[in-house]
UniProtKB/TrEMBL annotation, chain A:
Claim: Transport is one of the keywords in the record: yes
Protein name as it appears in the record: ATP-binding cassette domain-containing protein
SUPFAM superfamilies according to UniProt: P-loop containing nucleoside triphosphate hydrolases
Keywords assigned: ATP-binding, Nucleotide-binding, Transport
One Gene Ontology MF term: ATP hydrolysis activity
Pfam families the record matches: ABC_tran (PF00005)
Domain ABC transporter: start-end pairs: 2-239
Stored InterPro entries: AAA+_ATPase, ABC_transporter-like_ATP-bd, ABC_transporter-like_CS, P-loop_NTPase
Keyword field contains Cytoplasm: no
Record lineage: Bacteria, Pseudomonadati, Bacteroidota, Cytophagia, Cytophagales
Automatic annotation (TrEMBL), chain B:
Domain of life: Bacteria
Source species of the chain: Pontibacter burrus
MF annotations from Gene Ontology: phospholipid transporter activity
Gene Ontology, cellular component aspect: ATP-binding cassette (ABC) transporter complex
Membrane-spanning intervals of the chain: 33-61, 134-159, 180-204, 216-238
Name listed for the protein in its UniProt record: ABC transporter permease
Key words, A-Z: Membrane, Transmembrane, Transmembrane helix
Length: 263, 243
């Protein structure tokens, strides 16, 4: 379980986070929902320690993280797996080396054959068996995300963070990635936080949802409650998302019809 | 300016905190030594051979006094090469090649969140990425400078004998004349200083890149220009202190 308490963050004179608090439960997919520029990614970075909050604290399973001793922070960080928006695979390494890397660094006592077994298991788990020798430049967006997930779960992470895992993916691949995140969360009983602005993700995987608006938490609840919320900004967001989805659907149907006519 | 220098010093300090295991550091250093060293042999070889050749031809052109022995050409090629051309010109060439490579590599890693990925894993990214580059440069630069010295003197020999500026015997007499072994040590000390400046400044510029592809290019350019300026200033300081 991850608890955040009164997180504030300002860049220059722009207040990005304004007193955000909440609890992210274990074994559940916790979503940070909001439009672009509402501070979701910054909050995620504050939680994992990539950005230091001006005020506020983060606790991992009861252990205080923010401003704690370096050793303790490192110990917690070694339990964290993270999928970045652009996947952040190491360009100079192939798929196998990317997934093996955290094992090499974090578990130096592990033998080479054990490492290989674990790498192959993780790649199989994300549906990429046999892609060991491919370089990141040879992978599609969806495959990169899968490798990113495999790398995140390789060292048996306790906490999984995903920063916009669907960005840049087609709807079908996006659903598959969402499903994979959900399955892994339940299978390994880990605490997962996903940053998203996609309502499809809410429907597919959102167990708990925190809605951010201009750096503030405006709403928190379950997927089933979200349609009944009386928060104007959230309803506007849902409405805009639905409009976008419908427009996209019409566009896709028109494209399909055009292709059919051509044939 | 002062703020940048302060940040640079803090950056250097962060390289030696939370050091990764010696085995990992060693392996990374070997990888970087290959990247910096082996991949630079060709350019260093070409540049230093021609510098030696050009130096020989130009000294020969200026030595018109019949009272000065022709072997002086060999002597001057050796002195200029060892004291200045091999360490400084090689370092300036390497500032362009290695410096831009380091800065663009780290800059790209920074903007594509690869550095963040290391940090999230609990790895000190400065220590893991930058320290091996600096250690490798400290070992490899002197080797490249020694190679440059040999090839420059060889270049002078080839140019001198092919153009009949002097005989092979005169050239060899010249390069053996009044040899001061300390000059070699001086050149190697300079090369170590230059190696540190180029690798650390380029790493600093690359590591602190933020934005996109345009900023990576700007960081790479800044790395080369700042490194070259630092090398030239250090060259003067070393000459003042050590000669």
């Amino acid at each position: 379980m991850i608890e955040i308490h009164n997180i504030h963050k300002t860049f220059g004179d722009k207040k990005v986070l304004d007193g955000v608090s909440g609890v992210f439960e274990t074994g559940k997919t916790n979503l940070l929902l909001g439009a672009s520029g509402t501070g979701k990614s910054v909050l995620l970075k504050c939680i994992v320690g990539l950005v230091k909050p001006d005020i506020g604290s983060v606790t991992f399973d009861g252990t205080y993280f923010t401003n704690n001793k370096l050793d303790i922070r490192q110990e917690i960080r070694r339990k964290i797996g993270m999928l970045f928006q652009g996947s952040a695979l190491f360009d100079s390494m192939n798929v196998q080396q990317n997934v093996e890397f955290p094992l090499k660094m974090l578990t130096p006592d592990m033998t080479k054959s054990d490492r290989m077994d674990r790498v192959n298991f993780c790649l199989k788990r994300v549906g990429l068996e046999g892609s060991n020798k491919k370089m990141p430049s040879e992978l599609s967006g969806g495959m990169k995300k899968r490798v990113g997930i495999a790398r995140a779960i390789a060292p048996n992470c306790t906490y999984l963070f995903c920063d916009e895992p669907n960005s840049g993916l087609d709807p079908l691949t996006a659903i598959k990635i969402d499903e994979l995140i959900k399955e892994i969360t339940v299978e390994y009983n880990i605490t997962t936080i996903v940053v998203t602005h996609d309502m499809n993700s809410v429907i597919e995987i959102g167990d708990r949802i925190m809605f951010l608006y201009q750096g503030k938490k405006l709403w928190e609840g379950t997927r089933d409650d979200i349609m009944d919320s009386d928060v104007k900004e959230l309803n506007e967001f849902i409405f805009a998302n639905r409009l976008m989805r419908d427009a996209k659907k019409v566009e896709e149907e028109e494209e399909q019809a055009e292709n059919n006519n051509k044939q | 300016m002062l703020e940048h220098f302060g940040k640079y010093l803090i950056f250097l300090g962060s390289l030696v905190t939370r050091i990764e295991s010696p085995r990992i550091l060693f392996n990374r250093t070997i990888d970087e030594a290959i990247l910096i060293g082996i991949n630079s042999i060709f350019i260093v070889g070409i540049v230093s051979t021609f510098i030696g050749a050009v130096t020989c031809v130009q000294v020969s052109y200026n030595l018109t006094n019949a009272l000065i022995p022709r072997s002086t050409i060999g002597f001057m090629v050796r002195e200029m090469t060892i004291l200045e051309l091999a360490p400084t010109i090689t370092s300036i060439v390497l500032a362009g090649k290695v410096g831009s490579n380091i800065a663009s590599g780290l800059g790209t890693m920074q903007i594509t969140e690869q550095v963040d990925a290391l940090e999230v894993m609990g790895i000190n990214s400065e220590n893991y990425l930058v320290l091996p580059k600096i250690i490798a440069a400290l070992f490899v630069f002197p080797m490249l400078v020694i190679l440059a010295m040999f090839l420059s003197i060889a270049g002078g020999y080839i140019a001198g004998t092919l153009t009949n500026a002097l005989t092979a015997q005169e050239y060899i007499t010249g390069i053996r004349d009044a040899f001061v072994p300390y000059n070699i040590l001086f050149a190697l000390i300079k090369s170590v200083v230059f190696a540190f400046l180029i690798s650390s400044i380029s790493s600093f510029k690359g590591y602190n890149t933020s934005g996109g592809a345009l900023e990576v290019g700007a960081a790479s350019t800044a790395a080369v220009t700042n490194s070259v300026i630092a090398v030239l200033i250090a060259d003067y300081v070393c000459a003042q202190l050590l000669l």
